[in-house]
Write a structure and sequence with these properties.
With 375 residues, the chain is an alpha/beta fold. It folds into three domains: 44 residues, no CATH class; 135 residues, Response regulator (Rossmann fold); 174 residues, Rossmann fold (3-Layer(aba) Sandwich), CATH 3.40.50.2300. 47% of the residues lie in helices and 15% in strands. The chain contains 15 helices and twelve strands. The strands form two sheets. It has a six-stranded parallel sheet, with helices on both faces. Strands 7-6-8-9-10-12 form a six-stranded mixed sheet, with helices on both faces. The protein is elongated and about 90 Å long.
Length: 375
């Protein structure tokens, strides 16, 4: 026999018809146990591997679900993928991950490739949710479910998300309750819906407390990464002490961790001089040098629920009703946002003066760092 064994070779070795071999592969419950055992033995002896490409052509789709997401360096998305993978495996499917890196062009390339590969369906946290190719997929036989999206964004499709406005409101209300008056919102770009929603939630917390919106200081970033958080930390430390916020709400945990690292490098104590709250509650949040208070999203539940909705979509049931499922976030309070009792008992005047002297020195280092070496 030349080349890999085919289904005809298996049929000859087991002395059965090609149809019987096909039934063993696809509908084993229809074959008598003795016959099935003989076919399985022939498959093992010949090293037969089914031609999945041919099966896909007959079935019209593969046994693969794809998750297209924004940032492979953010553990939040891998946690979402773990939940989606669990649901996929339970239904005999595999999950592949496609990192768009937040680039609309790269996302479009992946979607085109996935369409060619006839994937079973696509889960997506989109860089460009208005892209024509994305919106054409369902009509071309590839169901789509949006992940980490607001329900009102895609009412005609299934979606799974978290109430990020509520999450932002809870985070900043916690900081206001800790006595902070001037608070920074650190994150961006504002074109990302989740960032915009979390900022809106922060503004609602100020309004509910009867506080002026100007006391929410915007420190915009170009990305939601640790490096962007560190860069924001330099700008934060460089602010005059009279203008510097005493707390920061960050659009995600990576920004918060970068900010925390940079402030500590400048000698600014967290939480005694600056309190920090992040968002997502990734595993690294609890393991930070100062354990990070964060707004928890049920990432694995998001992924599992999205995959289950996608499997329902893939059945193409005429009675299928699109669902937009929204989960409620939860604030997990740790050391980064709660001033120690010993520190709180100190007199307010001397503490504020000491903090001012220390952070003014930090501001000088931050300015020099941003300017580069002096010639």
């Amino acid at each position: 026999m030349n080349g890999p064994a085919g289904i005809k070779d298996v049929a000859e070795r087991a002395s059965v018809s090609i149809g019987t071999v096909s039934n063993v592969l696809n509908r084993p419950h229809l074959v008598r146990p003795a016959t099935r055992a003989r076919v399985e033995a022939a498959i093992a002896e010949l090293g037969f591997v089914r031609n999945e490409s041919a099966r896909q052509l007959r079935a019209g789709s593969s046994r693969v679900i794809a998750y297209v997401f924004l940032d492979a360096s953010n553990p939040f998305f891998t946690d979402v993928a773990r939940g989606a993978e669990d649901a996929s495996r339970e239904n005999g499917l595999a999950l592949v991950m496609c990192n768009s890196n937040g680039e609309a062009g790269r996302e479009a390339e992946y979607l085109d490739l996935l369409l060619q590969q006839r994937v079973h369906g696509v889960l997506i946290t989109a860089a460009d949710d208005k892209a024509p190719l994305l919106h054409s997929l369902p009509a071309r036989g590839v169901p789509v479910v949006f992940v980490d999206r607001r329900p009102t964004d895609v009412p005609e499709w299934c979606s799974v998300g978290v109430d990020d406005i509520r999450g932002g409101e809870v985070a900043v209300t916690h900081l206001i309750d800790q006595g902070h008056r001037r608070i920074a919102f650190v994150g961006g770009p504002a074109t990302i819906p989740q960032v915009a929603d979390r900022h809106e939630g922060a503004l609602r917390a100020f309004a509910a407390a009867g506080r002026p919106a100007d006391d929410l200081v915007m420190l915009a970033t170009e990305a939601l990464t640790i490096a962007a958080g560190r860069e924001a930390g330099q700008r934060f430390a460089g602010l005059p002490s009279s203008e510097r916020p005493t707390a920061a709400f960050c659009a995600n945990d990576l920004i918060a961790l970068g900010l925390l690292q940079q402030l500590m490098q400048f000698g600014i104590a967290v939480p005694d001089d600056v309190a920090i709250v992040g968002y997502d509650d990734i595993d690294f949040a609890a393991a930070a040098t100062v354990p990070l208070t964060s707004v928890r999203q049920p990432a694995q539940l998001l992924g599992r629920t999205a995959a289950e909705l996608l499997l329902q979509e893939a059945q193409r049931d005429a009675g299928h009703v699109h669902q937009q499922i929204q989960f409620t976030p939860e604030l997990v309070v740790r050391e980064s946002s709660v001033i120690s009792r010993r520190h709180a008992r100190r007199s307010t005047g001397p503490h504020r003066q000491a903090a001012g002297r220390m952070t003014d020195a930090a501001a000088g280092r931050a300015t020099n760092s941003a300017a580069g070496p002096q010639r």
